[in-house]
Amino acid sequence: IRQTFDIDCIPLMFVISKQQPIPEVANLIFNEDDPQNPDVKYLMNDALKTAEELQPHYWKVLMGEEKPKRCGKCAYCRYTNNNPEFILPTQIEV
Question: Domain limits at 6?
Answer without folding.
Answer: 1-46
